[in-house]
Amino acid sequence: MSSSESSLDRVVPADWSVTDDDEALAALVNLVVVLADNKFFLGRRFSEWLAGGPSLESAVALAAISQEELGHARALYPLLEEMPLVDTPGPLQRGAERERKYCLSCLDEPWEWWADVVAALILVDPALTILFRALEDSRYDDLRQRAARVPSEEVFHRKYAEGRLRDLARTDQGRETLQRRIDWMLPEVLMWFGPSGEPGVAALKTQGLIMLDNDEMRDAFQKDVASILEENGLRAELGELPWERWNSLQRRVE
What residues make up the domain containing 240? Predict the structure, then answer.
């Protein structure tokens, strides 16, 4: 995660032992807001498709997933108030409370296709879960406790995602549309874990705040999604990632 805001003024409580490491502290703030904003906007985008899914049963299940994503965001935002920094990003409730958003660009605007919902379910949601799993042994107690609850709730998300993927990929037209949306989302999702050796993530790992580095998270994600894509005739082939367009603070492609 980015450490480019480490020059912020700090208030240093005695119980925050990471406050002697500006890079780790700034990266921790960035990590929390990035996770929260992505959960918030993922939930919002899902909620916009409750009337546009293929069936009533699908809409009911997606409504439950949307509420869980928003609930994860609501659980994370209060952590920003605990941080020994001033001017941390405020929580989002409607999405317009602050100009700067720390979410993937593919979550910026409402989606045009049901295939976008399915692609996000099979790519974005699992990517977030990989990062939560990397926090399950974090020595930051409040973050670890919140992170520990997420993977179990994501089990239903994954079953739902795989079912919708299979449904859409049964026809040539559905598979072709879904492939286009995967091709659009996947490069940014892979970049979301950050470049190899990113200083902010390295500082977090050194401090025991996160257990995996950038490449380990990216590898875990690729192994997680590759088989389900291949089983349904979909590709995860990539060329060179556009790192020259990468915004390391907001964790997005510009």
Answer: 18-253
Give phi and psi for 15, each to the nearest 5: -85, 0
Phi/psi at 247 (nearest 5 deg)?
-100, 105
State phi, psi for 246 to the nearest 5 degrees.
Answer: -85, 130
CATH no. for residue 230? 1.20.1260.10
Number of residues that this document lists for the chain? 254
User: What is this structure's pTM?
Assistant: 0.90
Give phi and psi for 221, each to the nearest 5: -65, -45
List Cβ neighbours of 99 (8 Å cut-off, separation of 6 or more): none
The tens digit of pLDDT for each residue in 106-160 reads: 999 999 999 999 999 999 999 999 999 999 999 898 999 999 989 888 889 999 9
Residue 227 lies in a domain: yes
Return phi, psi of residue 46, to 5°.
-60, -40
The pair phi, psi for residue 137, each rounded to 5°, is: -115, 20
Q: Examine residue 10 and state whether it is found in any structural domain, yes or no.
A: no
Query: pLDDT tens digits, residue range 57-80?
Result: 889 999 999 999 999 999 999 999
